[in-house]
Amino acid sequence: MRVLFIGGTGTISAAISRRVLELGWDLYLLNRGNRSAAIETGGKPGKLTEIPCDIRTDSVEAILRKIRSAAGDQPFDVAADFIVFTREHIEKDFLLFKDLCRQFFYISSASAYQKPLSSYLITESTPLANPFWEYSRNKIACEDFLMGKYRDCGFPVTIIRPSHTYDERSVPLGVHGANGSWQVVKRMIEGKQVIIHGDGTSLWTMTHNSDFARAFTGLMGNIHAVGEAVQITSDESLSWNQIYRAIADTLNVPLKAVHVSSEFLARCGGYDFTGSLIGDKANSVVFDNAKLKRLVPGFRARVRFDQGLRETIAHVLAHKECQAEDPEFDLWCDKVIAAQEEAAKLVI
Predict the structure, then answer these.
(1) What is the per-residue pLDDT across 102-135, written as a single tens digit (0 to 9) for each?
(2) FRET pair for 190, CA 20 to 30 Å: which of 63, 128, 229, 264?
(3) Residue 33: phi, psi to the nearest 5?
(4) What's the count of helices (H) and strands (E) in the chain, helices before strands?
(5) pTM above 0.90, yes or no
């Protein structure tokens, strides 16, 4: 199978790229070359061809046509763009790939599902509507455009809706700053209080990227997946209290949790918690993956959260490049916790 990925080195896409090579397929990786080392090729039977190029430049069409010509003018079996965030991006992709691939994957987001949810159990037929987060609304607009092209001219699109997928490079959390989750992990190690949004009892789903990759590659070249939207998540549901407790236990430190309402966090300013919390993580979600399992018989997520978390924390603690300090967010946490404590004193 000849596969073209745009990006290919992120949390989700790096795992899929590795899986593609493990399966012995030919992978063409088009990106700016900033993180190609994330794809380990040693011992994998597939062939990796790296194409240094920015998909948003005008030169990309000529480069892609040249690659196709070198392969006897045959289209790619699969193309996927992992860095599409706006309607403008996807319109350009349609023009680039409408005659260039047999199946095109669009990476949407489970955050596009309606907020607030009318039912805790989410399937692919759950309505799409998120008034709280522009990111999610842009994903919905891209889905609408692509499904219109599928209906109008048979564009062979498969839409994928991930939820919270993690890898070895970052500990998955609910509330963190612009530099990622390390500062929260550091606060735990230093015995400081950490913020959990809400009362911590809402349900969430964490999916290891290796599980995601196995599901994704099961949909590649799958004629039954064309024209479909498919969510890929684990079946494991956890409360945020359980998630933070698992992190503290893995670090072998006490959890000093401070519960702060998502609405209050959003009003504190400095970070877009209106979108990422009220428009996403503050909602209880349980995913019904029956459609995925029907399309990829035998698939099930194998990595339980506590098991994947142990590997992630071990990797982060061993690699300084995964420990991005964020003193601004650290100070913000202290201020929010102090402000809530002062507010409580006013009514005593």
Answers:
(1) 999 999 999 999 999 999 899 999 999 999 999 9
(2) 264
(3) 80, 15
(4) 12, 15
(5) yes
